[in-house]
Predict the 3D structure of the following.
Amino acid sequence: MAPQPPRRARPLIFLIGCGLGATSLAMNLTYAVSQSPTLADQLSLGAASALIEALSLTMPSLALDFSRRRQRLASAACTVIAAGAIALATWSNLDYIRTASADHAVSRSAVADTRTGLRSAIALAEASRAAISESRSVDEITAALARLRIAPWALAETSNCASHGSDAADRQCTVFRKLTEAKAAATHRDELDSALARDRTSLRQLPPIAPIAPSALRLILFALVPGALAGPVLMLARW
């Protein structure tokens, strides 16, 4: 007679089998929903996944019951169905892990590219900002321009100080031109400061990147174990 697990251990084995089955079912349902574009497809694939999971959980125990009753043909049929259901459930779990790992890798790559782009933009902005020595605000320079008085003949001769005229006219426009350049520099400085603050905030808010991809051990624990062992563990609880 084949050795049997102690009776005290059977409830624990049964709970372990139920936990493995629930984990595998959750993974299969999540995979089915994620692979379906419409609600009808999600419902049909989810129902199919639940039925396959139910077969993988119940068929091993039925095969054991039929074997005890000497009904070898029924036991063999249940064994074949159980093997197929377990294979499908395990394949679904593996594909779910593979898809999730690929999505995670794409996400990590996108985050890394975003971080690199932000750092480059910050470095360029900081270099441009360091080259601007203007310290006055735009409002101060605008007020200085409003107070400036230029002779009308000098404005007419230089097209409002936009072009060069006589030496006397250019001297009249010198302060205006310097203030105009200073205002442009101050405006650009403020724009750089805003861009730097925004990019630095975005850089700080980026999620950390996992240093390594999912290992083979994770694939075994999260895919093979729940899908392949749930039914046999439940069968062992009834041995």
Observations:
- Helices lie at 10-34, 39-68, 72-130, 138-147, 152-157, 167-205, 216-237.
- Residues 38 and 44 are 10 Å apart (CA to CA).
- Residues 72-130 form the longest helix (59 residues).
